[in-house]
From TrEMBL:
CC per GO annotation: cytosol
InterPro entries: 6-phosphgluc_deHydtase, Dihydro-acid_dehy_C, DiOHA_6PGluconate_deHydtase_CS, ILV_EDD_C, ILV_EDD_N, IlvD/EDD_N
The protein's name in its UniProt record: Phosphogluconate dehydratase
Record-listed E.C. numbers: 4.2.1.12
Family indicated by similarity: Belongs to the IlvD/Edd family.
Species the sequence originates in: Aristophania vespae
Length: 622
């Protein structure tokens, strides 16, 4: 099947737009490879420092650079359930590396914050910016020049994008993401949300709520809904940066361990000084980024990736925007329904076909670029294969079958929706992102008067006081990157869900974010320009009629144009101190819009790189 013409034209657009920045990136990576810091360039003293605490049997190999040395960047901590299993991974990776004549060292630990723990709390204001801290920490770890390959241990929301942003600046190094797998299913996500709504209505108390939360979040592994963390996994497979089928194999199982072992062996095989080196920059190109975007649309993934994918792409010199995503969304059929888009969790999704089935379907129908390089042998085709253990406990890959449950995965000829899960909405209120995959047909268009808020607490209070007992578009502004770091407003979903259950038409419009777990409330999120920089969302007043329509892509305030143009934007003053938020003033000050990735670090990097002219490393005198 030939490549879908829209996928082809969007890719061409991206290649054209990224010409200069991509060329600059590739030139810099070539310089890194040829002249950058690496083991042969280290002095005896440099090397002695690096191996001083190494196991004696590794020392010689490390000093003589006999085999590749894998730099592990780990996001381990034991508060985040998804990352807790990483505790022993570095030791295991070292063993697997030795099996094939290589070594491994932990190059750095990076922070991993949990958006579940910080949801609705001040710490959430650090979340998007933590991605930059992770990228910089990754770069710091890799800057020691000790490594010929990189293993990234990270799963959750900001961690994978941050790790990739950092690693891409060392794109001459072959790099693999190694996941740890999902938690076993607990209380179904839908029931958890139902108990939350009962709590909001005062029908159950805190004890019952706590019981439900703990029955849902009950062990090690990634949360089971298809939120940002699991969307990260999906993307890493579509990018070809993981072992095939690695995403959703249950945590701490023999199959999981076998895939990790095979992954480490493969990484050594494609290490920098090997016969077949596969640098990261050769894998993450414009086509791979488009493949990841196709995966996002086909699976109804997290809206957060409309920020993360542009940021990751930029770290590789590739410029994408929401128009690209929207054009892909128009043609890519949605063939997977995972919570919040449907009742199935990722374990169920995996059991009935998982990502290999989705990738194979899309690939066979011409929605994926096949001429991409991937870490696994066999290119993107190999990601259409399932991993299993044979009766000798050896890892084997076999072509995936058709879906075993068409409520969860559909054949491409009979999709859930003809278009993808995420839409661009735009109009006189700006541009925003809309997750259509979880919205019922009768809620795809909402026209109602606005009620304007500056904080999520104020929304909850108004709901509690019955002030939202009507059709309403709740506008929460002052939540963009420049204002307060762009928190997720997921805690608003239960109260707004209660209003919907009462029969009211409800929508949310915000310059902030929602979570990958948010779904059922119609919402335009990431609306830009954000209120803090005077965007139109700052001009909305209580009672203005707003129309939000996923079918036509409208985000409009229905008001006389002259009155609208003359209206002044409200002044936004968000809370910026306490809980360490004051340390992130520089990020708030410099963050570019969400559509450009909202990364101050990348924004300033690009500005500086632009001044370097043809010399990718040194400033020219101009
Ligand atoms: O996937 C995401 O985008 C999230 O940031 C995610 O981490 C989430 O917010 C919490 O885990 C909430 O989970 P609940 O729906 O259980 O509150």
């Amino acid at each position: 099947m030939s490549l879908n013409s829209v996928v082809e034209s969007v890719t061409a657009r991206i290649i054209e737009r990224s010409k200069l920045s991509r060329r600059r990136y590739l030139a810099l990576m070539e310089c890194n490879k040829a002249q950058g810091v690496s083991r042969p360039h280290l002095t005896c003293s440099n090397l002695a420092h690096a191996v001083a605490a190494a196991r004696p049997s590794d020392k010689d190999g490390l000093m003589k650079a006999q085999g590749p040395n894998i730099g592990i960047i780990t996001a381990y901590n034991d508060m985040v359930s998804a990352h807790q299993p990483y505790r022993h991974y570095p030791e295991q990776i070292k063993i697997f590396a030795r099996e094939v004549g290589a070594t491994a060292q932990v190059a750095a630990g990076v922070p991993a914050m949990c958006d579940g723990v910080t949801q609705g709390q001040a710490g959430m204001d650090l979340s998007v910016f933590s991605r930059d801290a992770i990228a910089q920490s990754t770069a710091i770890g890799l800057s020691h020049g000790m490594f010929e390959a990189v293993a990234l241990l990270g799963i959750c929301d900001k961690i994978v994008p941050g790790l990739l942003m950092g690693a891409l600046r060392f794109g001459h190094l072959p790099t693999m993401l190694i996941p740890a797998g999902p938690m076993s299913s607990g209380l179904p996500n839908k029931e958890k949300v139902h108990v939350r709504e009962l709590y909001v209505e005062g029908k159950v108390g805190r004890e019952k709520l706590m019981e439900a939360e703990c029955a849902s979040y009950h062990g090690a592994g990634t949360c089971t809904f298809y939120g940002t963390a699991n969307t990260n996994q999906m993307m890493a497979e579509f990018l070809g940066l993981m072992m095939p089928d690695a995403s959703f194999i249950r945590v701490n199982t023999p199959l999981r361990q076998a895939v990790t072992q095979a992954g480490v062996h493969r990484l050594v095989e494609v290490g920098l000084k090997s016969e077949t080196p596969l640098p990261l920059y050769e894998i993450v190109d414009e086509k791979a980024i488009v493949n990841a975007a196709v995966g996002l649309m086909a699976t109804g993934g997290s809206t957060n990736h409309t920020i993360h994918l542009p940021a990751v792409a930029r770290a590789a010199g590739i410029i994408i925007d929401w128009e690209d995503l929207s054009r892909l969304s128009d043609v890519v059929p949605m063939i997977a329904k995972i919570y919040p888009s449907g009742p199935a969790d990722v374990n169920k999704f995996n059991a009935v076909g998982g990502l290999p089935t989705v990738i194979r379907e899309l690939n066979e129908a011409g929605f994926l670029h096949r001429d991409v390089k991937t870490l696994a042998k066999g290119g993107i085709d190999s990601y259409g294969k399932r991993a299993s253990l044979n009766d000798k406990n050896e890892l084997v890959y076999t072509l995936s079958q058709s879906s075993q449950d068409d409520e969860v995965i559909r054949d491409i000829a009979d999709p859930f929706h003809k278009s993808g899960g995420i839409k661009l909405v735009k109009g006189n209120l700006g541009r925003g992102v809309y997750k259509a995959s979880a919205i019922s047909d009768d809620n795809l268009t909402i026209e109602a008067p606005a009620r304007v808020f500056d904080t999520q607490e104020a929304v909850k209070e108004a709901q509690h006081n019955g002030e939202l007992d009507k059709d309403v578009v709740v506008v929460v502004r002052g939540q963009g990157p420049r204002a307060n770091g762009m928190p997720e407003l997921h805690a608003l979903i239960p109260p707004l869900g209660v209003q919907m259950a009462k029969g009211y038409k409800v929508a949310l419009v915000t310059d902030g974010r929602l979570s990958g777990a948010s779904g059922k409330v119609p919402a335009a999120v990431h609306v830009g320009p954000e209120a803090k920089v005077g965007g139109p969302i700052a001009k909305v007043r209580d009672g203005d009629m707003i129309r939000l329509c996923a079918l036509t892509g409208q985000l409009e305030v229905l008001i006389d144009e002259k009155i609208w143009n003359e209206r002044e934007a409200a002044h936004i003053s968000a809370e910026v101190a306490g809980t360490g938020r004051e340390l992130f003033a520089i990020s708030r000050h410099l963050a570019p819009p969400a559509e450009e990735g909202a990364s101050a670090v990348l924004y300033m990097m690009d500005r500086e790189l632009e001044t370097l002219g043809n010399n990718p490393m040194k400033e020219t005198e101009q």
